[in-house]
Amino acid sequence: MRTKTDQKSRDGHKILRRSTDGGVLGGAAAGIAERFALRMHMKPIRDKLVAAAATCALFGAAGTLCFSAPSASASQPGQSSAALGAALRGDLGRYLTERSMAEHISAVSLRVTFAGSRPAISLATGTTRYDGGPPVPAGALWQIGSNTKAFTAVILLQLEAEGKLSISDPIGTWLPQYPAWRHITVRQLLDMTSRIPDYLYQPAFATAFAANQDTRFTATQLVSYVAGLPLGPAGYHYTNTDYILAQMIIQKVTHDSYADQLTKRIVTPLRLSTTCLAPYTCPASDAGRVPVGYFYIANGPPSLIGKPMSPLGLTWAQAAGGIVSSLADMTTWDRDLYQGRLLPPRQQRQLDSLVSQATGKPILRTTVADPLGYGLGVAQGIFPGPTGNFWYYEGQAFGARVLQMYFPRSGMIIALAVNSSTFNDHLSDLAGSVYQTLQEAGAASNG
């Protein structure tokens, strides 16, 4: 008979087996290790968009999205607000009905904001628990996962603008305790070309988290899981360790905590009243505003499958994915982020500078031939046709997935959230349905 200790050890190694996928982790290609690690970062939007004319489909291997040509109704005067709200609520309801069991979700939330004075749309459907509970409110809080990374990048770029560091600095300047990484630059941390392994893939981390999801990890402890391991091959490779190291640099430069810098530089100035770094700056009452989130990763630890996750227990993520927020705050942040209101022009250009997720080489913008780019904590894709390039990120924590998309030509932002972690993830399908509904209502027109 297998002892509990033996089971933990076997599970720890089983769920941390590496996959052969060398780039952004894809759901089908991801190995057991990536499934436990949750790919809490953004990933290529990989499924087809629901489009009435169905003239354009997803190139699955490349992760490219296309939209259909505008339907006839899109060229007509827009629907009433009530009719549009009902249509969007129908999109959410259908997704919840069709995907509730497959993704182990009970709640779906949507917020859409527009350029100019057009009122935002905030909707939610479902319940706060998989077995029932009260209806989920549109103002619920969510673990936003790796959407946190853009906050971290902005803080570092603000420090550069203040002359306190350069993103060209080798990290050895600030973190000499890691001599093997001394020549890697801050920029390489932020654009995922550092080659440093991801702590989330390591058996020791997996074992610690599976044993007690309330384990209080430190940044140094998280980095220790990969210190001494060889660097990976050259190119773009997503690793959460990069952003824990970025956090440590922020703390070294400012002689302050990452949580305090986040609050002083972003949360307070932008009046993000529902945004906090869990658990450090979150009121205890916030736990009751987070829909119960479920771990639902196939081949993950059996003890965690289908189990609720701690709403504020995110010390395992910190500057790589530890923020809790509402979709209202998220869309406020997104607009300021993408429209250049947080950084001087030079640092904004650096934020938006891209490397190809296929090659790791710098690119000016994404194209149909090279459709996925990664900046400094932000990502860009492309829709051939009038929609053009767009910015997006899907963050996945152990209890939620949050997808946001910004369309520069129209100024529209779509943000979606559901309450589970899974690689059987079709949230991009819902994004496509929502976009098509907005398009048909004349609400997604390009400027």
Strand % is 15-25%
List SSEs in N-to-C order: HHHEEEEHHHHHHEEEHHEEEEEEEEH
Fraction of residues in helix: 25-40%
Annotation field: number of helices: 12
CATH architecture, by name, is 3-Layer(aba) Sandwich
Please describe the topology of this protein.
Blueprint: H1 4-14, H2 32-37, H3 81-103, E1 107-113, E2 121-129, E3 132-135, E4 141-143, H4 148-161, H5 186-190, H6 203-211, H7 219-224, H8 241-254, H9 258-267, E5 276-277, E6 294-295, E7 323-326, H10 327-338, H11 345-352, E8 354-356, E9 362-363, E10 373-374, E11 379-383, E12 388-397, E13 400-407, E14 412-418, E15 420-421, H12 427-440
Parallel strand pairs: 6-15
Antiparallel strand pairs: 1-2, 1-14, 2-3, 4-7, 5-7, 8-9, 8-10, 10-11, 11-12, 12-13, 13-14
Helix pairs in contact: 1-6, 3-12, 4-8, 4-11
